Every structure is written in C-alpha cells, then in structure tokens.
C-alpha cells in the first residue's frame, strides 16, 4: 500500500474515533437523569406529596407519588397536613398500586399498601382529597413522613426513601 493511501486511512480512522467520542458525549447527556429541581439527588427513591392551588371552599386532590422505584411491595407511612386549613375528605387509589388504604384525620393520615409482588414502575400511589376550609390562606403544608422501615421489597428488605413535601396554595 502506498504512503498516500495509509495517510488517508489514518486520517479517516482518527475522524471516526473523534465522531464516536462526540456521539458518546451526546448520548450520555441526552439519556442521563433529568434535573432534580435544584435538590441534590442521592439516588434514593422518593415519596412526594404534590402541590396544588385552590380557593377557600374548594375540594382538591393532592397526589402522593413514588419515584426512583428500585422494586418495592410494602408501604406504611404517614402524611401530615394543616388541619386548621384543610379537612380530609377521602382518598382514591393511584395508578401505581393495586390496592391501598388511607386512614386517619385531624392532621394525620396513614397510607398502607401491600402488593403481591415487587412493583418497579414510578407513579401516583394515591390521591388525597381535602376541602379547603373557609378563612384558609397562603400555603397549607402536606408532608410525607417515612420511618426507617416504611418501604420494603418482596424479600422484606427495608428500602431507604427520601420524602418531598407538598402543599395546597390557597389563592
């Protein structure tokens, strides 16, 4: 092979490697996890209460979501809310769980769910309905409280989760 052909092949090989490197950087940036809204992510699953806006007298549904699910089947955790401004009405099972129960009132609820197997999707666990009391104003806190063994998998291994509080903003 002539020196000219070897030089052309060498330049083409270098260009191909450079193109592959650029493509790799692009794919990593496109398929990496999205921004966590300013919070530093620890990679742990998160149970969060949503944020909604309402007026006094309205009934609102606050979603309780599970994201970053590593495979879980048992859930038992508390939800606290501003009982001076919000009245607990009822709950609806979300799309994530096959069944769940929410009980309590006067500012403190408990969500319980035991699935038949590990679920691995992310989604809404339940919708909590509140009536916004007359005279309520500003932000009314809805907090998720998880203890050490609040979430477990099929093998009964505890799953550490983070929580993210929500609110009902009364306009």
Q: How does this model look, in words?
A:
- With 171 residues, this protein is of the alpha+beta class.
- It has one helix at 3-31, and strands at 46-49, 51-54, 59-67, 72-81, 86-93, 101-105, 108-119, 123-132, 138-145, 151-152, 162-164, 166-170.
- The protein is extended, with a radius of gyration of 24 Å.
- The termini are far apart.
- The relative contact order is 0.24.
- The model is unreliable at 11-41 (pLDDT under 50).
Count of discrete alpha- or pi-helical segments spanning 4 or more residues: 1
- State the separation between the terminal residues, measured CA to CA: 79 Å
From N to C, what is the helix and strand string?
HEEEEEEEEEEEE
Overall pLDDT level: 84
Oligomeric state of the chains in view:
single chain
- Residue fraction in strands: over 45%
- How big is the Rg? 24 Å
Quick take:
The chain has 171 residues and is α+β, with helices and mostly antiparallel strands. It is built from one helix and twelve strands, in the order H-E-E-E-E-E-E-E-E-E-E-E-E.
SSE topology sketch:
Elements: H1 3-31, E1 46-49, E2 51-54, E3 59-67, E4 72-81, E5 86-93, E6 101-105, E7 108-119, E8 123-132, E9 138-145, E10 151-152, E11 162-164, E12 166-170
Parallel strand pairs: 1-11, 2-12
Antiparallel strand pairs: 1-3, 3-8, 4-7, 4-9, 4-10, 5-8, 6-7, 9-12
């Amino acid at each position: 092979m002539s020196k000219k052909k070897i030089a052309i092949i060498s330049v083409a090989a270098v260009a191909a490697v450079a193109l592959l490197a650029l493509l790799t950087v692009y794919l990593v940036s496109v398929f990496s996890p999205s921004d966590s809204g300013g919070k530093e992510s620890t990679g742990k699953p998160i149970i969060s209460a949503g944020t909604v806006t309402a007026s006094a007298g309205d009934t609102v549904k606050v979603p309780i979501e599970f994201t970053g699910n590593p495979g879980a089947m048992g859930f038992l955790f508390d939800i606290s809310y501003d009982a001076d401004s919000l009245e607990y009405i009822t709950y609806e099972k979300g799309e994530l769980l096959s069944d769940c129960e929410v009980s309590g009132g006067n500012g403190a609820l408990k969500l319980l769910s035991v699935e038949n197997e590990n679920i691995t999707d992310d989604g809404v666990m339940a919708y909590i309905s509140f009536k916004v009391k007359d005279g309520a104003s500003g932000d009314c806190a809805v907090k998720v409280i998880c203890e050490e063994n609040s979430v477990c998998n099929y093998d009964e291994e505890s799953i550490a989760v983070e929580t993210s509080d929500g609110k009902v903003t009364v306009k």
